[in-house]
Structure prediction request, 301 residues.
Amino acid sequence: MHLSFIYLYGGAAVNHVQLITDGTAYLPAARLRELGIISLPVVARAKNKLFMYDQQAKGHIELLEYLAQDRAPVEIVGPAPDDFRAVFERTLYRTNRMLVILSSEHLSPVLNNAQIAARDFMGRCDITILDSQTISVGLGLLVERAGELLQEGELSLPEVIRRVRGMIPRIYVVMVTHTLDYLYRSRKLSAMQAILGSMLNTHPFLVIEDGAIIPQEKSRTPEKSLDKLVEFASEFTYIQDLVIFHGGSEASFAELASLRNRLEQVLLNRDFPAIIYDPILATHLGPNGIGMVIYQGSGRL
Prediction:
């Protein structure tokens, strides 16, 4: 499939280092444009249907609605190597230095596809590919900071990369899912674990560690699984950003309201923004998940 790439340049001259990311990086389109970031849409396939997602194309909502009706397997098919090659080739007309920050290599083939494409440009340009080890809002935080530092132009590229990497250990992603078959398909659960979990109606609590989704505890009711999320958030002495993500269904919005109410009891005087999660997370959670991205920020005690 050929993608229409989103080149978002502001009025100012583009920095000598071109920043590139994938469509799961959660940043407003205006902010991407302001920082001169190229965003490649993520494309998911469920059966014979394709769903495109970035901050301008909202195919993730259609995908989750489709999965709620038909528990079809989901595969991430774009951006493919040819899509990255096209972006790298076009970027060469402006600069031969590129920084590519992508969603975790453990969650989809996107980063591997970029690496395959970059091999064709060895000796022609300097392409640095950075594994964010995260997704969604977490990726957006890293990309935005990298864009700010590159736009300021006061630091070398290695120093920009060092500072962005320094943020990664302070980004936490936790979630629960009520649909075990997608965890089984993504090899996060064995067949026996998935069968027993379905029989016992368990709701796994999951964390992203070093870029991979790791099942932790299991709850017997949806309410107790929400308690696990609240308990995790309450352990922080300082939180700079907290964003909830959910599946977008009517039931998901009800669960979102319940989670917000619980969080308000332990994290006072703050808002809890929410988004509908992207196709990469959908490949692991299915249509019935909810979770949080927490950025501890620089105020760590």
User: Anything to note?
Assistant: The first strand starts at residue 6 and ends at 7.
